[in-house]
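Translate sequence into structure tokens.
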Amino acid sequence: MTTSARRKLAAPTLAMLPRVADSLSFLYTEAVRIVQDDTGVCAQVESPNGTDRVYIPTAALACVLLGPGTSITQPAMATFARHGTSIVCVGAGGVRSYAGVLPASLTTAWLEEQVRAWASDDSRLQVATRMYEMRFGASSAPAGATLPQLRGFEGQRVKALYRLLATKYGVKRFKRNYDPDAWDDQDPVNKALSAANACMYGVIHAAVLALGCSPALGFVHSGTQMAFVYDVADLYKARITVPLAFSLHASTDPEREARRRLREDFRAFKLMPQIVADVQSLFDSSGDSSPTADRASDLVHLWDPQAGPLPAGVNYGFEAASVSISEFDTRDLE
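Result follows.
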């Protein structure tokens, strides 16, 4: 293979980049070394019999969760970035999500939509109300409901869901509890729910980053870099992770079973494209998703509040009123 051909394969064009909605869910790794070789990116495990390798379909993954004992080389990270795959560092079993790395080529179109909606208290409340109605049905939020009222309604509905599922699965008493310092003392439902939610956070984090949005600018949650991820995760817990956790109330290994079942559910529910569509509709109630036409863009525009985005790299001197060059201190230009 020639150097030119190899360079073209290593730098895919915009058309070759996968859309996040078409991606598979996620890959969790633990105690492996991820490297780039001449064939692709692979996970290596050293054993007495030699080195075992499993090649990773980087272009088909939306998110790779790096668990404890995982190391990754810079060339492998660069390949993930070129393919638009987000990298999220997580705790054991994906129970915690610590940080994410996103490709530098992402467009800022949806980030700008998110910031506009977040920066105004009125529009922020509108998005929070839209989230509530996504969870509990259209028109479920009374007209003019305040944020404290929405929190109260949400708490009542979640408690009712817990009671319904506890009755269905014969769980005598259930109280939601998440305490990492007393993890082994928790009941199977709480363990399964925490593990399932953590996996969901990883997938949603990947979707949010893949759209170019900020995971920190939440509309209900705040104060953490994952605030918006927690907002979006709440849209699906009642439908996916909560019923799954209750179904594992008698499991001897609820965490492992929850992660395995969740992978299947992510495919069955086609969650990744649903996340992308829901995030878009949160910021654009008109249903016009044109800002996502390109996930990645190398184009840079100039901001203009009246004319809209203007192309960069253009000399706009003819549009400005004449100024005297002598007004400038040209010493720094010499």
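Note: The beta strands are 24-29, 33-36, 41-47, 50-55, 61-66, 71-72, 86-90, 97-101, 301-302, 310-311.
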